[in-house]
Amino acid sequence: MAVCIRHVVKVVTGSHRCLLANTGHSLTSLSKPGPGHLAARTFAARTAKKETVPKNVKRGKVEKQETVEKVERKIDNTNRHKPYGLTAWEPVDDVYLVRYYPRPVYEVGVAIDKLKQFQQLDFTSLQQSVFMDLKLDMKLEKKKKVDAFVSTVQLPYAVNSDVNKVVVFTEDPREAEVARANGAAFVGGVELVEDILEDKISGDFYVAVPEIVSRLLPLKNKLRKKFPKTKRGSVGSDIPKMLEIFKKGQEYMVQGESYVRMRIATLDMPKEQIMANIETIIKDVCSHKPVSFGPFIERALLTSSTSEALLFDSGPFIPKPTEDEAAEARA
Prior knowledge:
- The chain is an alpha/beta fold.
- It has helices at 2-22, 27-31, 108-122, 173-181, 192-197, 220-223, 239-248, 271-286, 323-330; strands at residues 57-58, 61-62, 105-106, 129-136, 150-153, 166-169, 186-188, 205-208, 250-253, 259-266, 297-304, 310-312.
- Strands 3-12-11-4-10 form a 5-stranded mixed beta sheet.
- A hairpin with a 5-residue loop joins strand 11 and strand 12 (310-312).
């Protein structure tokens, strides 16, 4: 009986070993695993980033971002012992660097005298031209601005001795006779359109009566800024007045959005005549903006062909608002 039991045990253990051999494992491998069978990982898992929520997002609602407007810094030099960023208010020596001191603002008469002194010191021509440069404040209420304009002004003391050629458009025989009597270079109606397009006729200025303006549209691309317009004063019924202005008038326009540069005199003219021309131009420029919005001119320069530019005070020539206009502006 004992012998039979031992044979049964051998058979069972042998079959168990065969099963382990077929599966690729052994008893020794299960009891003593080698280091070569351990799993080795040669890469790392990427860590998930947390979603960053903007500060202006709260519970699914996006708050409107506040737009910060850049405000121009205005430096107040009142009661300062010296201007901001400069050395002193006035130089002590006769020779100094201009950039370290504020530019002086002269009265008009003093600025003209200095231009005449510069001409003598530099031995330049006395007949050289004098120019005025204005910087305008084009702002109106809210975001509105003054439109760039073109104007013609008749100076009390003419700079040019030549008379401008003026072309008058009218079909009324009486008005045509008046225009010729007052010195018009060419007078006619629609028949002048073809001659102007073919460059047979040309003029410095073109004026017209209101009834004929609509029939002059073919000339708009040819004449451009010289085309008759009511805003420029070249369309009207008073032909003698228009001829008086444009024959001896001087044209100026706003350039670069806010600048006006104009030849106003020559250095050989007396100081009183130059001042009279300056006053006439400044008043004509200021007429393009209501006085209630404040001074139209921010800066005024006076210079000649060979000298440096001098700042001058234009305040005495700027029109002052009436009491009603001032009260309306305060309201």
